């Protein structure tokens, strides 16, 4: 029989990990703040379903069965944080130049359409049909 000392997770990697503290934190900070009662009830039902499953023993058994916590949780969380951090970095000036060129080209083409009565009529027909 394997004891908690032999299990890699959570005793050696996370000695102070307690799954219920994770749920308590989640419910404290991630409850709907806009007063949507249906959404709050759905979240509470989901958490009530997950609560009995999250225990040190369950997580240990999952790891023994081959569940890769690093791949399943760590990598997506790392990517999410990477995207969040890079979204806060100012845009590359070169990409702004390219974007501005595209905007100018679009505006030139729009002016060409306005100057051509047939093209303007075709554009209006497409818009009235909901295509554009």
UniProtKB/TrEMBL annotation:
Name listed for the protein in its UniProt record: Uncharacterized protein
Organism expressing this protein natively: Ktedonobacter racemifer DSM 44963
UniProt superkingdom: Bacteria
């Amino acid at each position: 029989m394997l004891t908690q000392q032999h299990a890699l997770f959570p005793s050696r990697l996370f000695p102070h990990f307690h799954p219920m503290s994770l749920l308590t934190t989640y419910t404290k900070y991630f409850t709907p703040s806009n007063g949507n009662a249906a959404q709050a009830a759905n979240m509470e039902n989901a958490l009530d379903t997950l609560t009995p499953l999250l225990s040190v023993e369950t997580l240990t058994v999952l790891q023994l069965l081959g569940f890769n916590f690093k791949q399943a949780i760590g990598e997506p969380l790392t990517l999410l944080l990477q995207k969040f951090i890079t979204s806060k970095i100012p845009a590359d000036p070169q990409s702004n130049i390219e974007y501005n060129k595209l905007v100018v080209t679009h505006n030139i083409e729009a002016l060409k359409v306005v100057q051509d009565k047939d093209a303007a009529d075709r554009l209006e027909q497409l818009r009235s049909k909901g295509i554009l």
